[in-house]
Write a structure and sequence with these properties.
The protein is of the alpha/beta class. Helix content is 35%, strand content 24%. The protein has 2 domains: 56 residues, Winged helix-like DNA-binding domain superfamily/Winged helix DNA-binding domain (Arc Repressor Mutant, subunit A, Orthogonal Bundle); 176 residues, Rossmann fold (3-Layer(aba) Sandwich), CATH 3.40.50.1360. The chain has 9 helices and 14 strands. Strand 4, helix 6 and strand 5 form a beta-alpha-beta unit.
């Protein structure tokens, strides 16, 4: 098999990153059939392009605004497991809010006929997913469409969210830090999430392990405003140890 070109290697590295949430030098070198030094140079190039952030022994994804489709395509098995673990947290009646995250979208796609819900969201993609579920009355809060993230934000979105009350708010985040709380790549995203959380009895954060121990530009929710964190990990996993004193974990 001929060696991969540099552009092919970098594309494969991005595929690994989307699937696993991080890149380890030795593992990637074995997969690509090249030296760790070659992978290191490729990761340096990707970091200069703003696509990854180098860390000791490899790289993680750079936290930048992404469209819904790109986010939905990444780490699918983790999202599916989070949705499975969180499904029984959805009340059978009443009102819930769901943000524009693809992880919350995976949960919406698990709704069945036992639910009679008002579901409010700032995501057209999650609205469409909810509209196909019997017993779910889906409402889009509207506002200004943020083209980088495919979510509705701004004053109108916040005003509409503030006019409603929710039993639970299901949200994700670009990053989670045990001290900084949840955070996002844009300030506008945090504003809508804060309003939705303020008007919900409980806020449930759904996030995969690749987001743990990181922080993005704009702080969204402090842990005292979060009722529960749901990840794909076993709650006893050591990666969750820094979070156990600040939030309940499932």
């Amino acid at each position: 098999m001929p060696p991969l070109l540099s552009t092919e290697r970098r594309a494969r590295l991005l595929e690994i990153l989307a699937s696993e949430g991080s890149i380890r030098l030795d593992g990637a070198a074995e997969v690509l059939g090249v030296s760790a030094m070659t992978v290191r140079r490729d990761l340096d190039d990707l970091e200069r392009e703003g696509l990854v952030r180098r860390v000791r022994g490899g790289a993680v994804a750079a936290i930048v605004p992404q469209g819904f489709g790109a986010r939905m395509a990444a780490r699918g098995p983790a999202k599916a497991e989070i949705a499975r673990k969180a499904l029984d947290l959805i009340p059978h009646g009443g009102a819930i809010a769901v943000d524009a995250s693809s992880t919350a979208g995976a949960l919406v796609r698990q709704l069945d006929t036992s639910h009679e819900l008002l579901l409010v969201t700032n995501s057209y993609d999650n609205l469409r997913a909810a509209q196909g579920r019997p017993g779910v009355d889906a409402v889009l809060i509207g506002g200004r469409l943020e083209l980088r993230t495919d979510s509705f934000v701004g004053a109108i979105a916040c005003q509409t969210a503030a006019s409603l009350h929710f039993d639970r708010f299901f949200t994700s985040a670009a990053a989670l830090d045990p001290e900084f709380g949840t955070s996002e790549s844009t300030l506008e995203e945090t504003q809508v999430k804060r309003v939705l959380a303020e008007h919900a009895d409980e806020t449930i954060v759904l996030a995969d392990a690749a987001k743990l121990g990181r922080h993005a530009t704009a702080r969204a929710l402090p842990w005292e405003e979060v009722s529960l964190l749901v990840t794909e990990l076993d709650p006893t996993d050591e990666r969750l140890a820094p979070f156990r004193d600040v939030v309940d974990i499932r």
